[in-house]
Design a protein that fits this description.
A 3-stranded parallel β-sheet has the order 2-1-3. It is globular, with a radius of gyration of 14 Å. The protein has 106 residues and is mainly α.
Length: 106
């Protein structure tokens, strides 16, 4: 279980990680291929804090549907369990502060 502060800090760190490692920012699509958990919520918030948009890919979908979504969506990165494991190893390397806002109303 996470506190709201921990949730915010993890999401901020993930936003920094995505921006630094994958150049994620405005207009970029990031896939989320995870079971429902607190890390799925952290992923959604981290992607949005990085200024990107997320594409949910439910692991319960049929394989053909998953392949279609992944090939059709032009994702910069897919946050699955392996990617999250890599992030958790580097978690302490990224700041807990929020990224500067770069989104515009349009």
């Amino acid at each position: 279980m996470l506190t709201y502060r921990q949730l915010d800090e993890h999401a901020n760190r993930l936003a920094h990680y995505l921006q630094t490692k994958y150049s994620v920012g405005n207009g970029v699509l990031v896939g989320i291929f995870q079971e429902r958990s607190e890390w799925q919520v952290i992923s959604i918030l981290g992607i949005m804090k990085a200024g990107a948009a997320y594409v949910p890919v439910d692991p319960a979908y049929p394989q053909e549907r998953i392949r279609y979504i992944l090939s059709d969506s032009d994702l910069r990165v897919l946050l699955d369990e392996a990617a999250l494991s890599q992030f958790r190893e580097e978690l302490a390397d990224y700041p807990v502060t929020a990224l500067p806002r770069t989104l515009q109303p349009d």
